[in-house]
Amino acid sequence: MTTVDEATGRTRRLTRRQRQRLIRVVQYTVFVAVVLLIAFTADWHTVQQGFFRPDVARSMFPGVIVPALLNTLAFTLGAFCFGLVLGTVLALMRLSEVRVYRWVATAYIELFRGLPVLVVLFLVGYGIPNAFPDREIPGGVYGQMALGLGMTAAAYMAETIRAGILAVPKGQLEAARTLGMPYGRAMVSIVIPQAFRIVIPPMTNQIITLTKDTSLAYVLGVTASNVEITKFSSDVLNARVNATPLIVAALVYLVITLPLSQVVRRMELRAARAR
Amino acid sequence: MSDAVVISDLHKSFGPLDVLTGIDLTVEAGEVVCVIGPSGSGKSTLLRCVNLLETPTRGRIHTLGVEITDPDCELDPLRRRIGMVFQQFNLFGHLTVLDNLTIAQRRVLRRPRGEAERVARENLDRVGLADKAGAYPAHLSGGQQQRVAIARSLSMGPELMLFDEPTSALDPELVGDVLTVMRDLATEGMTMLVVTHEMAFAREVADRVVFMDGGGIVEQGAPADVLGHPSQERTRTFLHRVLEPTRLTDAELDAT
């Protein structure tokens, strides 16, 4: 069938529907061709020997779960809680009417956003013990990780939380104040809960980033009992001279992040009910 | 009778903008005073000064016998005795209707949960929304939200209620519900200071009407006098524009 283009008067051989179908067929063909090309040209045997050796993978269990996965979770949770508290305080300081608070918070945020996490962990691990030789950070490596990762995370979280607080309408604070709530109580009961709902998605990114940053724990000199996923896997990698542990480690990280996404989705649905 | 609000020589500026230029106003206990006037005349700012949501530039305000403009005045205990209803309702979106009514009672007045919920349900019943206790504000109509907001203020047992254009954000058919609740409140003897554009409400319910323009009080008196026989030209022009908006002459249109 042919159609005449009204505007140009030119004859076109395909209708709109036929054109769309043709374009889609071409796209699928190209995609399938690329996949087949990779599948048939790759040296699967070598890849399997290097990255997917079942015996190596099997030898990593249960060590990669207990203690490695549990330690990764503990480091993440500690750093997130510390970062959340410090980040909230910093956000409130940046919004304060007291100029000195704003300066201190801004300086902290600019500094810790700029410093590599590795450097901060190093300072926590070796700088603080040198400065206070008689005291120890409580919790050992767990405390040091919470402090080191948390201090950096707090700088990012502070900006996110500040944006969340600013997104809560001013009338909410005014209504709370006219009911006789002091400023602090109004922030804790009314403004911050609503701000946290707004910042759930960026906070999820923050937790996932933290989860992966826990792999830097090796700078603190971990022992067998507080080893985390990446260190555990790279030790196996060195011992077996095989890359399978990397693949296993990657899958174990997904075991953390995929359920986390589900939990967050639930939380967002619950928060949406109240909107 | 004692005075609920005494305002003397009140000035308020936002930067170079003088919003209030010398207000003197007294509201007696049990009195209902409606403040009317064109937008930008300083009505809302005046109301927000009474509970110090805005800090006056000059002048004094005594609210419920306490000088609220005194820098050493304890604001929170005083604000518990002053209810305020906003144009935008300002219900707490993350809390159910019942929690909206109980949170300040429990956190500020330290009432136990049972008592707070009893008071809350009484006040919800009073505004005709007893069945909405479990709903979230977002699921209510504007008129219902505003009535919840009134019930929230009443749950604190206020001695004075401030209304800042409570029906201006509502669909026309919902205005009546809110005004009815306000009229019942007035009948029960509540002291009320109401900024409003509802002339019918002012005429029926107010003991006194105050007309403001340009940051000052132009005239005040009984509703029948101010709304029926205004003595000032500015009041007459305003009322003509509000009450007969379709009958403006070309000259009046230009004189905006």
Structure description:
The complex is a heterodimer of chains A (275) and B (256). The mean pLDDT of chain A is 91. With 275 residues, chain A is an all-alpha fold. The two termini of chain A are 53 Å apart. Chain A has a two-stranded antiparallel ribbon with strand order 1-2. Chain A contains twelve helices and two strands. Chain B is α/β, with parallel strands linked by helices. Helices cover 38% and strands 25% of the residues of chain B. Chain B has ten helices and ten strands. In chain B, the strands form two sheets. Chain B has a six-stranded mixed beta sheet with strand order 6-7-8-3-9-10, sandwiched between helices. The radius of gyration of chain B is 19 Å and the shape is globular. The model of chain B has no long low-confidence stretch (mean pLDDT 93). Classes of the chains: A mainly alpha (275), B alpha/beta (256). The interface between A and B is medium-sized, with 22 and 28 residues.
Write the layout of secondary structure elements.
The complex is a heterodimer of chains A (275) and B (256).
Chain A: E1 3-4, E2 11-12, H1 16-41, H2 44-51, H3 54-59, H4 64-94, H5 99-114, H6 117-131, H7 141-167, H8 170-178, H9 183-198, H10 200-213, H11 229-240, H12 244-273
Helix pairs in contact in A: 4-5, 4-7, 4-10, 4-11, 4-12, 5-7, 6-7, 7-9, 7-10, 8-9, 10-12, 11-12
Chain B: E1 3-14, E2 17-28, E3 32-36, H1 43-50, E4 58-63, E5 66-67, H2 75-79, E6 82-85, H3 97-107, H4 113-126, H5 142-154, E7 160-164, H6 172-187, E8 191-195, H7 199-205, E9 208-213, E10 216-221, H8 223-228, H9 233-243, H10 250-254
Helix pairs in contact in B: 3-4, 3-5, 4-5, 5-6
